[in-house]
Design goal:
alpha+beta, extended
Length: about 160
Amino acid sequence: MQRTEARYVAPRDRELVPRVMIRLMFGMVMLTLVLVSAHVWTGQPVGSVPPKGAVAAERVLYLQGDLSGAATVRDETGVTVVTLNPEEGGFVSGVARVLDRERTKARVALDGPVVLTAYENGRMAITDPSTGWSADLMGFGQDNAAAFARLFASAPVAR
């Protein structure tokens, strides 16, 4: 004799997600697609570009990072500017890995320099001349931008 357990079966007349909600979500996706497409097709300028200021300082650096978060930063003469342990160098190491990925996609040498730029308005940017990739560091938060700001204080800076 087999024992059967009673199992709860949801009623078929109830929907887990109402059809109205699914249609509204689909409509929002389509509206967003239409608005973005119209913006691109009409040639509207990008409005979310960070403000540029006059260049206060620039520094050529070589970044090397690993998956643990440790990073080594060298200047253009090959002298080590700073060696960061995994607790200190997480963001710098992350940027180094992004640079490696971008350079791999562009099929250029992985060991090229980057240019760290400080602007008079307080913003900072990092640029890879070999691929054209750049990032405004304030977009990653003040603490992460400060990790790169310390690299200017580590040694004399070219103006």
